[in-house]
């Protein structure tokens, strides 16, 4: 099962701020559960697991998908952690979220699944589609599609659009100009701990 359908605020209280999962903020500061008040030093394994879970919940992946992306990242030359983040950031659902066309990644996934999005004038209904430099992303020229996206644009998930993307708000047309750089990744995460987690399995 790829989508988490449970309580999102509970996940955010446990793992910290996940901009892709939800825009809601909890008033409670302690982790969820009856033992949330107890502060104890986490083990190294617990730290690595937490970073991996952040990645999973923020981008809406299941374990199998994340493992597949780790294997792809290991085959590419360069830092495995950075390549993994770039693969996840260049997914179509995340790209729509970063453009401000949807308030969260699950909302962007729904736009893609319901056929509201065109990539290079072809309808793409696969959320994990890897956007490449030069790709043109636009909203279907249907009234329902455009109204939905314009409504979403009133509540953007993040304030700034990364420098590898550009958006024409009037025409609802965007262009991918390059690969995302590390400083533009919105999620606060130590990707090396995720790589370590999988290297020990």
Automatic annotation (TrEMBL):
Superkingdom of the source species: Eukaryota
Keyword Plastid listed: yes
Annotated region described as Disordered, given as residue ranges: 19-42
GO molecular function: rRNA binding; structural constituent of ribosome
Keyword annotations of the record: Plastid, Ribonucleoprotein, Ribosomal protein, RNA-binding, rRNA-binding
GO biological process: ribosomal small subunit biogenesis; translation
GO CC, any one term: small ribosomal subunit
Start and end residues of each RNA-binding S4 domain: 90-154
Domain Small ribosomal subunit protein uS4 N-terminal: 3-89
One Pfam family it belongs to: Ribosomal_S4
Record-linked InterPro entries: Ribosomal_uS4, Ribosomal_uS4_bac-type, Ribosomal_uS4_CS, Ribosomal_uS4_N, S4_RNA-bd, S4_RNA-bd_sf
Cytoplasm is among the record's keywords: no
PANTHER family xrefs: 30S 40S RIBOSOMAL PROTEIN, SMALL RIBOSOMAL SUBUNIT PROTEIN US4M
Protein family per UniProt: Belongs to the universal ribosomal protein uS4 family.
Matches recorded under NCBIfam families: PRK05327.1 (NF003717), rpsD_bact (TIGR01017)
Protein name (Swiss-Prot/TrEMBL): Ribosomal protein S4
Organism expressing this protein natively: Campylaephora sungminbooi
């Amino acid at each position: 099962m790829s989508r988490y359908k449970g309580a999102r605020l509970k996940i955010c209280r446990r793992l910290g701020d996940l901009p892709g999962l939800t825009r809601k903020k909890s008033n409670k500061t302690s982790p969820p559960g009856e033992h949330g008040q107890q502060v104890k030093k986490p083990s190294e394994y617990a730290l690595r697991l937490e970073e991996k879970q952040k990645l999973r919940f923020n981008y809406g992946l299941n374990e199998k998908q994340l493992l597949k992306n780790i294997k792809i990242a290991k085959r590419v030359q360069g830092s495995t952690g950075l390549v993994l983040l770039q693969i996840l950031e260049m997914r179509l659902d995340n790209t729509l979220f970063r453009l401000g066309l949807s308030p969260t990644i699950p909302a962007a996934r729904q736009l893609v699944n319901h056929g509201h999005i065109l990539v290079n004038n072809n309808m793409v209904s696969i959320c994990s589609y890897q956007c490449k430099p030069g790709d043109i992303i636009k909203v279907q020229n249907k009234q329902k599609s455009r109204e939905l996206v314009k409504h979403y644009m009133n509540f953007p998930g993040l304030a700034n659009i990364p420098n590898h993307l550009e958006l024409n708000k009037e025409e609802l047309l965007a262009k991918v100009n390059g690969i995302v750089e590390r400083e533009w990744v919105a999620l606060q995460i130590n990707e090396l701990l995720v790589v370590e987690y999988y290297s020990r399995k």
